C-alpha cells in the first residue's frame, strides 16, 4: 500500500503532461487516417434545414447537394422519367401542358417545332419531359414526344383553357412547383420552360452557375442581381441543393398567406424573405436574351427564347408567337448557316 502511494507521489506534473500529450496525438492520428466516409453521417442524413435565421454552419449545409432527402411526395414514374431524360450531368428540361395547349396545330406543336427550327438545339428534346395536366394532353404528348408524365390534380379540371387568375388557373400554375421540388430532391438540375416560350438558341448559355436560381424577367432593368426586376417564372433554372429545396418548400407554404395568387406573384412578394432567410442568390436574365411581349426587343442576333407572356387568351398568344417564329425563320435563312 505504501509502495503504491510512494509511486503516486513520484508522478509529478511532467508525468501527466507526457500522458496528455500521448492521448492528444492518438486522437489526431485517428482523425487523419480514419476515412471521413466511415465517420458518422448523421449531419448529412438529418432533415432539411428549417426556414430561420441561419448560422454559418447552417448556410454551408444549405449549399450542399442532397442525395437522399426526406420527401413529402414521391412518384416512381416521374423519378424514372427523370433518370431516363437527364443528361450525364443530371440536367433535365421541364414543361407542362393541358388539352387546350396540346390541341392539334396549337402551342405544343409550335413549341416542339421551335427546337427543330432553332440554332442547333434539337438535341435538347432528348432531355425534355412534358408534364400533361390531363388525359387528353397526355395522349397527345405520347403521340409526338418520348418523355411524357400525367400529373392530374384531384378535384380540379385543368384540361381547358383557363381564365387568367381563376381558381383552376391558379391550381394549374402551382402544380409545377411541387414537381420542381421533387426534381431537386431527386438530385437533378432543371430548366423549366412554359410551353408558349419558343426556343431559338441554347438558353443555358445565359445561366450563371454562381447563382442558386436563374429566372426570366417580365421587365429587366439592367442588373441581373437586382430583385427589382419583375420576375417571370415561365423560365426557371435551379440547382439541386438543400437551399433550393427549402426555398421551394417555403414558396409553396407561402401560398397559404396568398391563396388567390399564382406562384409568380407569390414569389415576387416573398423574394426578399427568401434572400434574408436562405441567402438565396438569383440571376434575372435580360429580355434581350429571354424575350417576351412585356418588354419586346426581338433582336434575333441575341435572342435565345421568346415567351408569349403579357398576353391574355390562347388565341392571341398563338397568333403573335407564331408570328415571331416566322420572323425567326426569315432571319435564320438569311443570317445563319444551319
TrEMBL record:
Keyword Amino-acid biosynthesis applies: no
Domain Nucleotide-diphospho-sugar transferase: 123-318
An annotated Gene Ontology molecular function: transferase activity
InterPro entries in UniProt: At1g28695/At4g15970-like, Nucl-diP-sugar_transferase
PANTHER family with a match to the protein in the record: EXPRESSED PROTEIN-RELATED, GLYCOSYLTRANSFERASE
Pfam families: Nucleotid_trans
Transmembrane segments: 14-34
Domain of life: Eukaryota
Protein name (database record): Nucleotide-diphospho-sugar transferase family protein
Amino acid at each position: 500500500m505504501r509502495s503504491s502511494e510512494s509511486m503516486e507521489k513520484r508522478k509529478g506534473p511532467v508525468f501527466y503532461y507526457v500522458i496528455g500529450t500521448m492521448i492528444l496525438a492518438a486522437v489526431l492520428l485517428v482523425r487523419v487516417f480514419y476515412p471521413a466516409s466511415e465517420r458518422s453521417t448523421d449531419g448529412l442524413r438529418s432533415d432539411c434545414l428549417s426556414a430561420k435565421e441561419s448560422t454559418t454552419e447552417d448556410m454551408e449545409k444549405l449549399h450542399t447537394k442532397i442525395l437522399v432527402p426526406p420527401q413529402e411526395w414521391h412518384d416512381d414514374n416521374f423519378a424514372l422519367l427523370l433518370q431516363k431524360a437527364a443528361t450525364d450531368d443530371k440536367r433535365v428540361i421541364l414543361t407542362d401542358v393541358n388539352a387546350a395547349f396540346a390541341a392539334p396545330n396549337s402551342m405544343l406543336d409550335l413549341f416542339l417545332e421551335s427546337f427543330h427550327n432553332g440554332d442547333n438545339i434539337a438535341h435538347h428534346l432528348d432531355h425534355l419531359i412534358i408534364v400533361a395536366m390531363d388525359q387528353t394532353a397526355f395522349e397527345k404528348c405520347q403521340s409526338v414526344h418520348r418523355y411524357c408524365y400525367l400529373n392530374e390534380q384531384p378535384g380540379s379540371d385543368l384540361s381547358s383553357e383557363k381564365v387568367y387568375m381563376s381558381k383552376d388557373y391558379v391550381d394549374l400554375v402551382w402544380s409545377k412547383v411541387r414537381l420542381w421540388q421533387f426534381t431537386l430532391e431527386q438530385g437533378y438540375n432543371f430548366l423549366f420552360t412554359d410551353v408558349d416560350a419558343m426556343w431559338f438558341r441554347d438558353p443555358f448559355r445565359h445561366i450563371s452557375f454562381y447563382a442558386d436560381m436563374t429566372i426570366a424577367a417580365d421587365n429587366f432593368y439592367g442588373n441581373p442581381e437586382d430583385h427589382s426586376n419583375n420576375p417571370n417564372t415561365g423560365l426557371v433554372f435551379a440547382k439541386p441543393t438543400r437551399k433550393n429545396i427549402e426555398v421551394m418548400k417555403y414558396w409553396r407554404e407561402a401560398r397559404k398567406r396568398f391563396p388567390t395568387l399564382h406562384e409568380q406573384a407569390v414569389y415576387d412578394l416573398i423574394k426578399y424573405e427568401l434572400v434574408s432567410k436562405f441567402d438565396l442568390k438569383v440571376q434575372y436574365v435580360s429580355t434581350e436574351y429571354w424575350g417576351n411581349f412585356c418588354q419586346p426587343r426581338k433582336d434575333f442576333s441575341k435572342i435565345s427564347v421568346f415567351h408569349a407572356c403579357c398576353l391574355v387568351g390562347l388565341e392571341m398568344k398563338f397568333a403573335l408567337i407564331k408570328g415571331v417564329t416566322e420572323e425567326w425563320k426569315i432571319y435564320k435563312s438569311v443570317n445563319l448557316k444551319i
